[in-house]
Specification:
- Helices cover 30% and strands 20% of the residues.
- With 281 residues, it is α+β, with helices and mostly antiparallel strands.
- The protein folds into 2 domains: 117 residues, Alpha-Beta Barrel (N-terminal domain of MutM-like DNA repair proteins); 144 residues, Helicase, Ruva Protein, domain 3.
- It has a 5-stranded antiparallel beta sheet. The chain has a 4-stranded antiparallel beta sheet with strand order 2-7-8-6, covered by helices on one side. The protein has a two-stranded antiparallel sheet with strand order 10-11.
- The longest helix is centred in the last third of the chain and has 21 residues.
- The protein binds a DNA duplex (13 and 13 nucleotides) through helix 6.
Length: 281
DNA sequence: CCGGTATGGTGAG
DNA sequence: TCACCCTACCGGT
């Protein structure tokens, strides 16, 4: 379930469990064995996230750079660590708790320069108080690329993944295939502010919920969504089902190799002024 | 058991 | 644009 809120939450929880403490590190699976041995017994200074990247800092300007990719997990558990189960690439242990990293696309030991470079290449992250949405706007406003594509580009905007992309575009009635340059500034500001709220809520609850109060299962008398990520959503992976708002059928298509979901009536196809004709049909 | 799929990203062509 | 990487889970055989 790794979108930006997952990594932000993970950094916070790693801090609580291990921050400022001397920890044991190991690589039961073996693929991070040399690095884990080098860090073993060092003080874990802090953990931080930027977009979907996680940096776990150890004394001596040493950082474990983690990216969970599509299927990675970093589970923190209270109690004494049992023998590792499955492919644990990195285990961090303290007396009180342990954390197991599995399936990550990236797990590298890097220095501060590399950490700064990775963070520096990211677009603004709605979860960071110092984020500047104008940096993203400057890219979006001059781009011919589809809005759905731009929102997923971590150099434009950091932390938004396939679920938040689909949902925030639905919430603002925006066609995902509409070119970035056709967006008005006010619309972008609203999208950004909404992402700030949605991601913060995701950090708080640990799940992705995007439906407004009037569209919750309780409010509408419909069954709750039973899914692997647990949250209530409007269109993500709801293709073929009815839209809660307008009752039309939610659609899906492929955009740059990722599944895209939208409601054709709530997010009508955008037509530029030029193709509309001078005075209607 | 096997194949398909997944909230992501990289590097080759 | 495609092949590929990481792991777990789910459905159909």
């Amino acid at each position: 379930m790794p979108e930006g809120h997952t990594l932000h939450r993970l950094a916070r929880d790693l801090d609580v469990a291990f921050g400022g403490r001397r920890v044991r590190t190991s690589s039961p699976q073996g693929r991070f064995a040399a690095e884990a041995a080098a860090l073993d017994g060092a003080v874990l200074v802090q953990a931080e996230s930027g977009g979907k990247h996680l940096f776990v800092e150890f004394v001596g300007d040493r950082f474990v750079h983690v990216h969970l990719g599509l299927i990675g997990k970093f589970d923190i558990t209270a109690g004494t660590a049992p023998p590792a189960v499955g492919a644990v690439r990195l285990r961090i242990e303290h007396e009180d708790s342990y954390a197991d990293l599995r399936g990550a696309i990236t797990c590298d030991l890097v220095g501060r320069a590399r950490r700064d470079q990775v963070i520096g290449e990211l677009g603004p992250d709605p979860l960071r108080a110092d984020a500047d949405p104008d940096r993203a706007w400057d890219r979006i406003r001059r781009s011919d690329r589809a809005l759905g594509d731009l929102l997923m580009d971590q150099k434009v905007l950091a932390g938004v993944g396939n679920v938040y992309r689909a949902e925030v575009l639905f919430r603002h009635r925006l066609d995902p295939r509409r070119p970035g340059r056709t967006l008005r500034r006010g619309q972008w500001v609203e999208v950004w502010e909404d992402l700030v709220c949605l991601l913060a809520e995701g950090v708080r609850t640990g799940r992705i919920d995007t439906v407004r109060p009037e569209h919750t299962p309780e409010a509408m008398g419909r069954p709750a969504r039973k899914d692997d990520h647990g949250g209530e959503v409007y269109v993500y992976r709801r293709d073929g089902q009815r839209c809660f708002v307008c009752d039309s059928v939610v659609r899906t298509s492929d955009l740059k190799g990722r599944n895209l979901f939208w409601c054709p009536r709530c997010q009508p196809t955008f037509r530029s002024r030029a193709t509309k004709g001078p005075s209607g049909p």
